[in-house]
Amino acid sequence: MAPPKPTQDLAQANQGKHLDLNGNEFELPTFTMKEIHDAIPAHCFKPSILRSMAYVVRDYFYLSTLIYLAVTYIPLLPSPYLRFAAWTAYTVVQGFVFTGIWILAHECGHGAFSKSKKLNWTMGLIMHSFLLVPFHSWRLSHSQHHKATGNIEKDTAFVPHSRESWLQRNFGKKAQVNMIEFAELAEDSPISALWHDLVHQLFGWPGYLLFNLTGQEYNGAKGAKISHFYFGEDSVFYKKNELPLIILSDIGVAVMIAALVVAGQMFGSWNVIVLWGVPWLWVNNWIDLQIVAITFLQHTDGSMPHYDNRTWTFARGATATIDRDLGFIDTHLFHDIIGTHVCHHLISTIPFYHAGEASIHIKRVMGKHYKADVDTPFWTAFWRNQRACKFVEETEGAEGSGVYMYRNLFNREGETKAQNLCGNKSVGDKKVGVEEGLKAVLPVATAMSSARNLDARRRLSQSAQLRGSLPLMAES
Fold first, then answer.
1. Stretch 66-89: mean pLDDT, rounded?
2. Worst-scoring range by mean pLDDT, 32-46, 275-289, 296-310?
3. Which of 81, 163, 186, 216 has its CA 20 to 30 A from that of 252?
4. Cβ–Cβ contacts within 10 Å for residue 372, how many?
5. Residue 373 backbone phi and psi in degrees, to 5
């Protein structure tokens, strides 16, 4: 039997229209990477060592200045309430600065910091180790995300659930997509959704590094082999010749941990926790916003498509992302990674300080396919998409197209409904909640929590992930 055609022929052969979650028709992009490259001025591809290093010096100057101001002046405040407010403000702002340093190391991983691999790797290792990130481990796995963005079969980050996997994650392994109990569901309560979001933000990033939470399943692999810190030959991430770099990354993290322990002994553990530890938790929030929320929001939206391997192309996958706006925080402290993410996925070796200019030219090629939402407040978009974008499936009438759009089972007005997989059955006016769904498929209602806990070891967010193919990162 001849294999299916790998490009747009498969999707275009289907007569059905692709509808996004908001009810808008989605048309497959047809532009090429050559058109994108040709549209961008040549100087945008050229990093400057002097300029890149200047940003490193600037960010560490911010970091040092904030520490000096905090330890010098906050203890002088007369009221404990004022001191608490000042320390809170310090940790938030320092968290922004820490995140900027993380993003500069991210530039190193992509080869956008300079043309020198040695300098990129040295600076990336230093800056990421400072934040307890195993630089090369992350760099190598992150490259797979860029190689197959939007490919639900090969991407390594933020590949969403299928309908079946989402139901089974929430209602247990016996839940089936064609069961009448799951034709329509009640929404999570706001408190439940808020709790999920908090866990997602604080622990999604370290959970991803340690346990591959929100990552590819790798045929059910478990234990150390799915950790970014693991350097055994049976690692699911790395080739044998890459393992020395994994060891080097682990050493960098270990040295930083040792430095924190020594600092705690010299200056007091509480001081280290407040001055470094709490801002580091803010980094988890923002990197969970860069990796889990920034990246979550730039790959998760009711208008965003995903593709199977037959329909996916690099250009399609790379543009299955959306630019957003976080104002001064992004443009100055986060090095514009939120506002130029489409450009970053198309050509990740473009330095961030040229990405804004490159984006202008990219828009002219992409036309209506260039997605940007600068009107919705950042946290509003995060809350909305966490609650609405539950899984992906093909549009009813366009089955077999290989184009997947976000759906949920809440049947809200104005949203495209999920496929009817329950035949002619009807649930009437009743929306099935969690307990009812569980009682339908499991012996006891408490199985819900055990099912959630079982799956929590590999997934933290309601929108999961998978992975993929095209060398845009600096090669090892």
1. 96
2. 275-289
3. 216
4. 15
5. -125, 95
Radius of gyration of the chain (CA): 23
Work out the pLDDT band at 200, boundaries 50, 70, 90.
low
C-beta of residue 328 within 8 angstroms of C-beta of residue 336? no
- Torsion on CA atoms 302, 411, 196, 373, rounded to nearest 10: 20
Closest to 253 in 3D by CA, of 105, 399, 368: 105
Lowest mean pLDDT among 120-124, 388-392, 393-397, 449-453: 449-453
What Å distances lie between residue 109 and 125, 245, 247, 282, 301, CA to CA? 9, 13, 17, 22, 26
Task: Give the separation between CA 345 and CA 369, rounded to whole angstroms.
Answer: 14
- CA quadruple 453, 457, 461, 466: dihedral sign: negative
Beta carbons within 10 angstroms of residue 27's beta carbon: 13
Q: Are 404 and 392 in contact, with CB atoms under 8 Å apart? A: yes
Residue 272, SS3 per DSSP: helix
0.85 cut: is pTM over it?
no
Percent of the chain with pLDDT over 90: 46
Rounded mean pLDDT, 132-159: 85
Q: Give the β-pairing of 403-407 and 391-393.
A: antiparallel
Q: What is the DSSP letter of 226?
A: G
| Mean of pLDDT over the chain | 79
Does residue 336 contact residue 461 with C-beta atoms inside 8 Å? no
| 185 DSSP 8-state letter | B
The tens digit of pLDDT for each residue in 67-76 reads 999 999 999 9
For 252-294, the pLDDT digits (tens) are 999 999 999 999 999 999 999 999 999 988 887 666 555 555 6
Contact assessment for residue 377 and residue 358, using Cβ atoms and an 8 Å cutoff: no
Residue indicated by tokens 């600065």: 97
Q: Give the alpha-carbon dihedral of 117, 120, 122, 127, to 10 degrees.
A: -160
Rounded to the nearest 5 percent, the helix, strand and coil shares of the chain are 55, 5, 40
**48: CB partners within 8 A, 6+ apart:** 114, 351
Pairing of strands 391-393, 323-324: unpaired
Task: Enter the tokens of residue 144.
Answer: 């797979």
Instruction: Check residue 215 and give its pLDDT.
Output: 52
Write the CA distances from 474 to 127, 243, 321, integer angstroms: 17, 17, 22
